[in-house]
Amino acid sequence: MIRFGVFLVLLLSALASAEDSHRTVVIDPGHGGADLGARGPNGVLEKELTLAVARKLARLLGAQGVKVVLTRTSDAFVALSERTEIANRAHAAMFVSIHANSAPEQAIAGSETYFLSLEASDDEAMRVAMTENDVFKQEGTADADRDVVGAILGDLIRTEHLRESSALAASIQRHLAELPGESRGVKQAPFVVLTGVNMPAALVEIGFITNPAEAVRMGQRDRQDAIASALAAAIGEAMVQDSEARLATDEPHAEEKP
Fold it and tell me: Where are the beta strands (DSSP E) in 40-193?
């Protein structure tokens, strides 16, 4: 009887833990610490914008009953590999990495969302990925000299969430497109931070920090609130879709007896 009681407690605990994982989201504010990210013409730093939006997003999701794990909560450097490990340790339902874009031409503006692929959508998508991956070479780890594309290929082969990642990216970009400004669509590229993540994952570029007007807008509280609200709506939508998919999988087939 005692053994059954212990078993029941363990079972209920495991079920609760599994349910928590379906309601956990890892938000990754890009860059941090010595890794400044891109810098705008007005002096604003990518690492500051990403953390500000991530904090707002975390509060919105928390109010919806979602458990949020931030890969960093302050201006601290976190290696790309550690960000991946944080997500996997949390057994999260999804992973969203937040960044601000940059380009050689100041006129380029707009938001875009990525999911992992060995092949980039186009040359511009590959340029963005290589820019964000640059910190991977600066981390000073034993892995720093290995072939990044080769590493991504190995992880990509084991990834089971590409379809869900594509859907998550599409949901994010659809909601961002409702905000004033240009929507540059959903793209694919080999981002190191998305490799090895055992869950649906997307990387969002909320705007171009190198565009003077857009850099000013992204630094404004109202714009950050709007971006966070759009991301929260997209994540909520993706979580509902995930829940419906799991329910459909769990339902008995028509030919099976209940």
Answer: 67-70, 94-101, 111-116, 183-189
Rounded Cα distance between 113 and 164, Å, is 14
Whole-prediction pTM: 0.83
| DSSP reduced 3-state for 30 | coil
Tokens of 88: 């996997």
H or E segment at 247?
A: helix 221-250
CA atoms within 13 A on the CB side of 63: 10
**Phi and psi dihedrals of 166, rounded to 5?**
-60, -40
**Angle between helix 46-63 and helix 221-250 axes, rounded to 10 deg:** 50
Q: Which tokens hold the place of 71?
A: 């890969």
CB 181 within 8 Å of CB 225: no
| Contact assessment for residue 95 and residue 29, using Cβ atoms and an 8 Å cutoff | no
- Within a 10 A sphere around the Cβ of 41, how many other Cβ atoms? 13
Residue pair 121/221 in contact by the 8 Å Cβ criterion = no
Distance CA 204, CA 143 (A): 25
Q: Give, for all 258 residues of the chain, the pLDDT tens digit.
A: 445 444 433 333 443 444 455 689 999 999 999 999 999 998 999 999 999 999 999 999 999 999 999 999 999 999 998 999 999 999 999 999 999 999 999 999 999 999 998 888 899 999 999 888 887 665 554 444 445 555 555 555 445 688 899 999 999 999 999 999 999 999 999 898 998 889 999 999 999 999 999 999 999 999 999 999 999 999 999 998 876 665 565 555 444 444
Which helix or strand (DSSP H or E) is residue 29 part of? Answer: strand 24-29
| Among candidate residues 252, 205, 23, 207, the one with its CA nearest the CA of residue 96 | 205
